[in-house]
Amino acid sequence: ARITLRQLLDHAAEHSYGVPAFNINNMEQGLAIMEAAQAVDAPVIMQASRGARSYAGDIMLSRMIDALVEMYPSIPICMHQDHGNNEATCLSAIQHGFTSVMMDGSLKEDAKTPADYDHNVAITRRVVDAAHWVGASVEGELGVLGSLESGAGEQEDGHGAEGQLSHDQLLTDPDQAEDFVAATRVDALAIAMGTSHGAYKFSRQPDGDILAMNIIEEIHRRLPNVHLVMHGSSSVPQALQDLFNASGGQMPQTWGVPVEEIVRGIKHGVRKVNIDTDCRLAMTAQFRKVGQGNLSEFDPRKFLKPAMDAMRDLCRERFEQFGTAGHA
Ligand code: G3H
Ligand code: 13P
Ligand code: NA
Ligand code: ZN
Q1: 58 included as an active-site residue
Q2: What is the pTM of this model?
Q3: Is 167 part of a structural domain of the chain?
Q4: Domain for residue 218, yes or no?
Q5: How much is the ipTM here?
Q6: Of 82, 104, 276, 278, catalytic
Q7: Number of folded domains in the chain?
Q8: Higher model confidence: residue 145 or residue 147?
Q9: Where in the sequence is the domain holding 274, given as residue range(s)?
Q10: 50 FRET partner, CA 20 to 30 A, in 58, 59, 140, 178?
Q11: Is ligand 2 within 6 A of the CB of residue 84?
């Protein structure tokens, strides 16, 4: 059945677990997430970016969600708009059956330029007003998330946002968070806590303490009723990088957010954990492996099935690690 983000994260808070929010843009990713959720009895957050919506098409995407809801009647599914850039994106998502939207007013409508605080408050408040009228939830964002804002996410030298923004700029101010939530009434809040989008987060192995636990804890303490969201939460597993590169790939060595750090974040109040890069890498490493291993293969299913299985295994692992398993 469909569930809103508010309903799901209220339950997660009550029972102290986190929920991975996996990005989808096609059928195989949707099936992979649902197979994993069914195997471990976990509730699901699936999210689509603006790019995903234009890739699959709104009608295709929304009918696909209908199909997944029907195929897995015992699994609660929250369908969420990832990084909405304006009111129209958020409201049209709700019209297509999304139960939750992110209004990312930390950036201007171009989804690149940092926006000023007043713009963020005003546009987020407008979306909250409209969404709450029809029972949908809203995630806002406050702060500068490394690579998305700096445009450094997937840059060629393989280095993320570190070094380009100061430590302070990469952290959300708890006073401002309190003000923002009071002014907008968002259900969930994405905060800058030391992560960035994409594969190239850290150019060296992180030595623990990469997340600002004090900031997470402080914001959680002041705002116990707003659910904290951690973007840029891919771990970029070494085994997937190795498989990708052993099969003709040329990804520069990189490090993501260690799963143990995410688990610590969940202990301090993080409830929604956004993961896209790991799912992409799990799938495309299999494309490479199959392609390199059988040069005459041309049936797409021979590529897509192992890719789907690899993504399913990754999703299942995260459901277990974040404590989502058993809570459907
Ligand atoms: O935060 C961005 C997500 O990883 C989605 O990326 O815009 O390429 O679909 P996308
Ligand atoms: P990753 O790039 O770390 O998977 O983060 C995805 C994300 O935050 C989507 O909003
Ligand atoms: Na931001
Ligand atoms: Zn994000």
Answers
A1: no
A2: 0.95
A3: yes
A4: yes
A5: 0.96
A6: 82
A7: 1
A8: 145
A9: 5-238+259-281+313-321
A10: 178
A11: no
